[in-house]
Write a structure and sequence with these properties.
Radius of gyration: 13 Å
Distance between the termini: 25 Å
Helix content: 55-70%
Mean pLDDT: 87
Number of helices: 5
Largest sheet: none
Strand content: under 5%
Structural class: mainly alpha
Amino acid sequence: MKRNLSAEEISRMRQQLDADIRIGRLYPHEAAKQMRQILRKTQAEFADMLKLGRRTYIDFERGAGNPTLETFSRVGKL
């Protein structure tokens, strides 16, 4: 079962994610997975939020497939 995160925990996780992205510590698919986890969404729910096909998002998060610039753009807007 998912544990509810406090606002403070979410804020700390977002700040760490931002720092990791800025210094290039994460690949785009790793950053997307962390964003999804911070939002406490399943892969299917996150794909729906991004208006992406579920398979497209799942492959992207796994670092597989061949994401388009549009896919990168949708994930990056978050």
